[in-house]
UniProtKB/TrEMBL annotation:
Domain FtsX extracellular, residue spans: 7-89
Name by which UniProt lists this protein: Cell division protein FtsX
InterPro entries in the cross-refs: ABC3_permease_C, FtsX, FtsX_actino, FtsX_ECD
Family to which this protein belongs: Belongs to the ABC-4 integral membrane protein family. FtsX subfamily.
Protein species of origin: Streptomyces capoamus
ABC3 transporter permease C-terminal domain residues: 113-232
Pfam families: FtsX, FtsX_ECD
Length: 234
């Protein structure tokens, strides 16, 4: 928020800060002085011809607010627009709406690709298990004739699918960790260059690894189990 209607007083700034802190939709409030605003402007627009003519006293003080839910921006706008000591309430999300729309479109596209790859993976698993069962039909037929149970016959195929899935899941976990390290932490140092983007942290990566491993074991095992119910009949 920027000060207007003359220079904002200290009492007005304190009251605005207090009122912001009391609002349940506000997660964090950061004060930006004129000097800090000038520094940030120089960092972002240092090559602009206008930058050389500006001085810190021409910049405006502001409170930068992080909301718990960015969709509730209007709560802040209605509470502080037109208030003494406040020139305007700016929603930075509105400035980046086009970017967010693009990111949402890319997110939907990624989900679509994920669903397609999941279907393809299931078809490959089922087909591989069928080929394996067909190539060993003589052995499984003998086991059935001597009284072996259905699960006893299926168990080696299910275990084989589970081990193959576990190996694939392990490789996926390694690729995820290595990719996170070299693209964000080490190689390009993206987290320092693009501060506006909240990159995936190590906590989110590490908590997903057990899920990847569990899925890589369960999905092939279940696919093999249902596929073998038909193809291991004698």
């Amino acid at each position: 928020m920027h000060c207007a209607k003359g220079a904002v007083t200290e009492d007005q700034k304190k009251q605005i800060r207090t009122d912001l802190g009391k609002m349940p939709v506000v997660e964090k409030v950061t004060y930006e002085s004129q000097d800090e605003a000038y520094k940030h402007y120089k960092e972002q627009f240092g090559n602009s011809p206008l930058a050389g003519s500006l001085t810190p006293d021409q910049m405006q003080e502001s409170y930068r607010i992080k909301l718990k839910d960015p969709q509730k921006y209007q709560v802040i706008a209605s509470a502080f627009n037109g208030r003494d000591g406040v020139q305007s309430v700016q929603d930075q999300k509105g400035i980046l709406d086009n970017l967010f729309q693009l990111l949402n479109l890319m997110n939907r596209g990624a989900l679509g690709v994920m669903a397609m790859m999941l279907i393809v993976a299931l078809l490959l698993i089922v087909n591989t298990v069928r080929v394996s069962a067909f190539s060993r039909r003589r052995e499984t037929g003998i086991m059935r004739l001597v009284g072996a149970s259905g699960f006893y016959i299926q168990a080696p195929f299910i275990a084989e699918a589970a081990v193959a899935g576990l190996i694939g899941g392990g490789l996926a976990c390694v690729a995820l960790v290595v990719g996170r390290y070299f693209t964000i932490d080490h190689g390009m140092e993206l987290s320092h260059k693009l501060t506006l983007i909240n990159f995936v942290g190590w906590d989110a990566v590490l908590t997903k690894l057990p899920l990847i491993l569990a899925t890589s074991v369960l999905m092939p095992s279940l696919a093999a189990f249902f596929a073998l119910r038909k193809y291991l009949k004698v």
